[in-house]
Amino acid sequence: MTRPVTAESGFSLIEVLVSVFVFAVIGAISVALMSSSLSAQAVNREALDRTAQLDRLRTLLREDAGQIVLRPVRDAHGAPEHAVFAADADGVRQTGNLARDERVLLVLTRRGRANPGLLRARSSLMRVEYLVREDTLIRRVRAYPDATARTQDSEVVLVSDVSGVELDVLQGAVWSRRLRLTAAGEAGLPGAIRLRYDWAGMGAMEHVVLTPGGVQ
After folding, report:
1. Cα–Cα distance between 89 and 103 in angstroms, integer?
2. Per-residue pLDDT for 97 more than 60?
3. Which phi and psi angles does 45 have, rounded to 5°?
4. What is the pLDDT of residue 165?
5. What pTM was estimated for this model as a whole?
6. What does the alpha-carbon distance between residue 196 and residue 165 come to, in Å, rounded to a whole number?
C-alpha cells in the first residue's frame, strides 16, 4: 500500500540538515585530498629540478676539469691574459670583470667542444669560468679561447640560493685556496678541484673532480 502524497510530504528539516552536513564533510575531505596531492606534486617537482641542477653541475665540472689544456689566450684587445689556468677562492682578478658584482672562482681552457661535421671553422677549445654572482653559481663560456671585440660569452645558471661558496685545488697532498699558472709549458696543474657550498634546503654540498694532472 503506497503512502498518499499530501501537501506536507517531503524531507524533514532534520533530514535536510543531515544531508547538507554529509555533503559538506565529503567536500571538505575532497578539497583536503586535492590540496595534499597538489602540494606533493610541487614538492616532487622541486626535488626533481634540484636533482637535475645537481647532476648538470657535477657533469659539467667533471668534464671541464678533465679536459683542461694549458694554452695561452688573448683578451678582446689582443693582449695576453694573465693566466692559462687560475683558481682563487677569493676571486680571480681579471680585466673586464671588476665592474660586475661577481666573484670568479675558476678560469680554464678546455678541449672537447663538439663541432659536428666540422661545419664551423673553429677548434675544439673553449674558455670556461665558474663564478658567483649574489647567491647564484654560474658557468660562463667563451666559445673561442682568443676573444675579439665581437666575441660574446654565454652563461648558464648552475644552482641558485647558495651561500658560502668555496673552491680549492689539490697540490700534492695539500688543498690550496689559490693557484695561478701563467705559462703554457708550466708544470703544476692541480690533481683535483674541489667545490663546496651551502644550498638552501639541501645543506652542505661538495664536488671533487680530477684534472689531467691527477690521472697521470
Report:
1. 8
2. no
3. -65, -40
4. 94
5. 0.74
6. 6
